[in-house]
Structures are given as structure tokens and as C-alpha cells.
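Sample intake sheet
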Amino acid sequence: MLLDSIMTRQVVTVSMDDTLSEVRRVMGVYHIHHLVVVELGRVVGVVSDRDLLSHISPFVGTTTERRVDSESLSRKVHQIMTRKLIVGTPAMTVDEAAALLLAHPISCLPVVDTNGICLGIVTWRDLLRAAYEPESAKKADPPRPKIA
């Protein structure tokens, strides 16, 4: 089975100059864990929910929040994103993608064409779904408009 058949095609993206506040908002609105960072249409990075949580103050939104805590939300995506990307291609097999996720400390693969344009994203959940969910139970991608 090829990645092209299981990837999520409606990818939510952000730009390098978006703030962590925007990343937090977008992840909450779409209930997602990964955002692909694009510049001039090409994939340049990924931001995960773990990246976000490790770079914002744990006191944001609490009664003990200080100005320095809320200022952590003003940081830019380019300051925290993963730049050394491991990507998939539409012709890659599900087994090859699974091997990449297991070999590296990552939880998603942006799927790109030969020009670095994002075609989709595959997460470990997509791989589990492909391996264990009956064909009749698989659902189409929910619509997710591009943000950036």
C-alpha cells in the first residue's frame, strides 16, 4: 500500500513568522497535533504539540500567569520548529513510512513532491489505521482549509 492512499490531504499550515499563540489556536480549532510550516509554498518545517508545550510557559491561562508567561506566546514558529525534516513521498510504501517513524524521533511525515510542495501528511495514527482498521470503516479526510 502506498502513502498516497492513506495520507491526509487537507494539511493545515502555518508560516515561519506566525506566533505560538496562533499555533496554539489553530491546533485547538482543528484538534490536530502537527502543523506543517511552509514558505513560498515549500515545506520548511514542522511544529508538533509537544514542541509548542515545551516552548510556552505552563502558567499561561492560569491565575498565576505573569507577563513573562504570556510573552512566551509571542515567540515565532521559526524559533521552535523542526527544520531537519524527514519527509515521505506519494510513492513511498506504508512499510517504508513506518520504518522512518520508528528509526527517528518523529510522529509525522509531511508528504512532498519533488519540488518540496506539501501534498499531505501521515502520522503514526494513519499508519495504525491502515494496518488495523477494516477497509469498510475508513473515512475520507475531514475538510481542513489551509491557514497560511
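Comment: The chain has a mean pLDDT of 88. The helical segments are 20-30, 49-55, 67-71, 77-80, 94-103, 124-132.
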